[in-house]
Design brief:
Helix 1 (about 1-10) packs across helix 2 (about 15-25). By secondary structure, this protein is an alpha/beta fold. It is globular and about 75 Å long. Helices cover about 45% and strands about 20% of the residues. The protein has helices spanning about 1-10, 15-25, 30-35, 50-65, 75-90, 115-120, 135-145, 185-200, 210-225, 235-245, 255-260, 270-290, 290-300, 305-335, 360-370, 395-405, 425-440, 465-470, 525-530, and strands spanning about 70-75, 95-100, 125-130, 150-155, 165-170, 350, 375-380, 385-390, 410-415, 415-425, 455, 485-490, 495-500, 505-510, 515-520, 535-550, 550-560. The protein folds into three domains: about 45-315, inorganic pyrophosphatase (n-terminal core) (Alpha-Beta Complex), CATH 3.90.1640; about 340-445, Diaminopimelate Epimerase, Chain A, domain 1; about 455-560, OB fold (Dihydrolipoamide Acetyltransferase, E2P). The strands form three sheets. Strands 2-1-3-4-5 form a five-stranded parallel beta sheet, sandwiched between helices. Strands 6-7-8-10-9 form a five-stranded mixed beta sheet, with helices on both faces. The protein has a five-stranded mixed beta barrel with strand order 12-14-15-17-16.
Length: about 575
Amino acid sequence: MEGVEQAARRLGVTALVAQILHNRGLSSPEAARSFLTPRLAELHDPALLSGTVEAARRIAHAVSKKQRIVLYGDYDVDGITGVAILHAILRMVGADVRFYIPHRLDEGYGVNREAVDKLLDEGCDLLVTIDCGISAAGPLESAMARGTDVIVTDHHTPPPVLPRAAVIVHPALPGELTPNPHLAGSGVAFKLAWQIARQICGETRVDATMRDFLINATCLAALGTIADVVPLQGENRVIATHGLRGLPACPLPGIRALLASTGLTGEKLDAYDVGFKLAPRINACGRMGHAALAVELLTSRDEARCNEIATYLAGQNAERQKVEREIAQQAADMVRELKMDNPDCRGIVLSSENWHGGVIGIVASRMVGLFCRPSILVALNGEGGQGSGRSIPGFNLVDALAACADHLEGFGGHAMAGGIRIQGDKLPAFTASFLAYAGERITADQLLPALRVDAEAPLPALSLPAAQCLEKMAPFGQSNPAPLVLARACRLLGPPRRLGRNGQTLSLVLGQGGATLRAVGFGLGDYADRLAGINQVHVVGELVVNRFNGNVAPELQIKDLDWD
């Protein structure tokens, strides 16, 4: 199409990439160019985030008066990196600052009264929550009543009644208009740190030292933003892109140790590296032990100690993977035994006294992937238990939990993920209520796995330049998935092959219009037998650049295929 060709020339991309951008709503040259080359200058003024100006002013006052500041963070990557950002800037300006991370299994999600009372007894003049607190009315009321100011920084769905606090910093408060309501907890912490730097410097522009700090802080903010699966669009895309670029050269000893332990030193990083290599290790100590160790990793200046922690996290992550595999198999078997994969059942709620509460959230995600249903897993411990849930597009999990709140001791989260606390004897009623709610709101079509194809293209269009241009659309994640293309009627040039230790990877050589292209399908090895005698296939896949042994070539990673 002429318009696509013109757009491609203006943007310096192939026609295929211009078509995909158009199909994703980036039809104007300005929008497409901004998307392809996100700039730090496009970050929104931190003063536009509700509560940042007042919070920065109160924190600066605490610094000047030598008041003790305690950062109370969540135990996931988003909370850990948010704590690390604020801890670093406060330490830079000479604050009396400490951090506290609750134990995932002993204390559960969010701010708890026992911890708050202990912190206040030990001495705390200003309590700042990171990635939690918006639903902690009771504990925060207790702190305020004892004369300790509280600043809440969070991004989770606000309850109908907000907690009492000196200031609330939140991107999506009812009645407040902020440019980016989808900031992660670490993104909120980053914007607050920026405003603190302004407050300390006494002007809108910060000095060179603070500027360098903020640029390095995007590395931490990117880890939390990608790991928390918030939409990677607009400002979040800017944070993720520049943070990923900066990670290989990040001066933090903890980041260097983490990269070394994962074999990523000196490598160009993408969202996959964060989601499947770095974030799981940061999360591992919180899932299997105590997340305070991960905060120490990201705040310590002692290289030897950071290397020691990174090595320990590698072991914890390996143990987490083993436990996760065992629970996932048990959970999948339970789904089938309880017939929760039946078309009439549109949600999954499972529980066991033998499950490790630190990994059930990951397993819930795997159940969603396997069965295309919102899934909640509960680890029982004595008379009560805690659960983690993950959802499917179009089904707001926190709204569902709110509808079942009569059966819960507490809950929190957002549209795609949430957590609960529940008494064991309430589980049957909660399960029935949740499944009924899901049954009324989830359609049969939502239970079917679906692939969103971005464009259809002939095989010659799936070239190396096209694959290289598609890399400019990264980082990929929530609201910006890796583009999928459909190539119809491709000839099979040679027999299908099985690759890998167990033969579970399919390898094809496709041909069309004088072009050839290698295609691989991970986990699709069984198709090698089914394709016997087939000469032509239709393929949906992700076009990538394969860099191996110094060779650079386009490759299609197969997501689905069919034939006539």
